[in-house]
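Quick one, T. Sequence first:
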Amino acid sequence: MRSLVLNRNESTCLLSSDFRSENPLTQTRTFHIQTRCATYPNRPKTLIKRIDNITIDIISARLKNVVSPLDIIKWLNNFEENEIKYAIDIASNLTVYTSYEIEEIINSSLNILFPKLEANDIIIINPIGNFGKSGSMVTYFFQKTDFHRKHNKKIIMLPTVQNFTAEADKNYSLVLLDDFVGSGNSIKTYFEDSIDSLKSNFKEILFVGVAGMKQGVELINPIFDRIEIPKSNIFKKAFSSEASYFGYRNYIQHREFCFKYGIKLTSPKVRKDKSEKFINALGYENSQALVSFSHGSPNNTLPIIWSNKNNWFPLIPRFFSDKISVSKEFRKSISYELSILKEFGSENLHNEFFTHQIKKGKRSFSSVSKIDFSIYAIIKLSRSGFTEINICQKLGILTKDYEQILEIGKQRGLFNQGNNLTLFGLEIYQDAKKCIKRKNRNFEYESADYFAVKETNYIPRIFNGKS
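C-alpha cells:
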C-alpha cells in the first residue's frame, strides 16, 4: 500500500491505494480517500470512500475530462458510503458538452438555417439573458464559428432589440441564442416581454440552442418560425417512465437519492397554507435534466451536480462564485508549483518565470511577476486540453487580458503566431514537469502515519545518580 498527498493547501487529501485481485493480469486499484478540509469546516473532518481507478477513469471520460479525477472524488465525498453507487450512476449518465462541441453545434445549426444569404439579408443575433449568463456565454462561442467568420459583415450582435431600428431595404432575421432549453418558461417570457411587439421588424424569428428538454422545446416551438436544436440533444426527464437512464422503469431509488439531497440544496416554495414544496429539488421547476457544459451547469440540471449550498462540493459548478472558488484553488496550486521551480528549477525556468527583480540593500532577488504566473498557468492549462474560455475562467481574467499575456509569451519565444507552444516553449514545459515530479516524489510514498504526531517515551539512562 502507498499514500499520495494530492493537495497540500487548505484542503488536504491523502490518497492511498492497494491492489486487490487474484488474477495479476486483471488487477484493479482500490483507492482509500481521506480528506481533511479546512475549506468546509462544517463537514466531518475525515471522509473515507473506496472506489477503483477504472470507475474514476470511466466517469472522467464520460465527463469528457471537463472535471478532474480529484474533483470527482471530492464530489463523491458529499454522499454516504452506501450511496456511492447511485452517485456514480448519476455522473455516468450526465451529458457534458465541451467548448468545441458547442461551437460545432452552433455553426452547423446556422448553416442549416441560412444555407445562402442574399445581398440585402442581415442576421441579428440576440443572446437570451443578462450579461454573464448562459446566453451571452454562447455568444462568445458563436463568434468563434466559421459561420461568423464567413458572414461577419452580415451579422449584427445586439444584447437587446428594444432600440433596434430596421432599414427599409434590408431583410432582417432575428436569431435568439441560448445554450439550453429547460422548462422553456424563461425563453417564452423573454419572447413575450421583449420580442413579440417588434415582430414586424423581422422577416423571421428563429431560435438556436445547443441542447434542451423535450417538454421545454415543445413549449417554445409555436412562438418561433423555426427552432434548430439537434434531435439527439433533446432529452427526456431523468426520472420519467419514458427515459431509460437507469434501466426500464428502474429509477425510483435514484430519484429518491437525488431528491434527498436536492431538498437540502434548494429553497422550497411556500404554499398558501404555509406548507413547503421543493419544486426545484430535481432541477428548476422539476426539469430533471442531466446536462452540463464545460462553462457551467444550467439550473435545470439536478442540483447535486452544480450546487455549492451548505458546503456542498459541486461536480460542475453553475454560479460565478463557484468558478471564483475553483479559480482560487487553481491559483494556489500554480503558486505551489512555481515555489518548487524557484527553489529547484533550471536556469531556463528561472529566466522565463522569475523575471521580476527585487532589490534589498546591496542584494538583488528574482521573483514571479503577474505575467510570469499567467504565462506558466496558460502553458499548463493549454497542454491539459483546456480552451481559451476555460483558461480565462480558471485564471479569472478577461479574453483581452489573455490575448495580451500571449503576446508577451510570443516575445519570449514560448508561443508561435497560432498561439501554440513553440519547441522552446515545449522544452520549458517538460523541464518544469520533470522538476515538479522529481520534488513531489518524496511525498508520493509517504504513508499517512508519517503525518501523525508520534509519542516518544523518554526513559533517562541515569536517574538519581544511578544507571
